[in-house]
Amino acid sequence: MTHAGEHSYDVLVVGGGPVGNTVAARMAGGGLTVALIESELLGGECVYWACIPSKALLHSVHALHAARRLPGSREAVTGQLDAQAVFAHRDDVTHHHDDSGQAAVMASLGVTVVRGHGRLDGPRRVQVTTPGAGVLSLEATHAVILATGSTAHVPAIPGLREAAPWTNRDATSAKDAPRRLVVMGGGPVGVEMAQAWRALGSEQVILLQAGRHLLPRLERFAGERLLAGLQADDVDVRLGSSVVGVDRPVPGGEVTVRLADGSSVVGDELLVAAGREPATADLGLRTVGLEPGEIVTVDGTMRAEDSDWLYAIGDVNGRALLTHQGKYQARVAADALVARTRGQQPSYVAEADTFAVPQVIFTDPEIAAVGLTAAQATERGMRVRTVEYEFGDVPGAALEAKGYSGRAALVIDEGDHMIVGATFVGPNVADLLHSATIAIVGRVPVELLRHAVPSFPTKSEVWLMLLSEYGL
Question: What is the dotted CATH code of the domain comprising 365-470?
Answer without folding.
Answer: 3.30.390.30
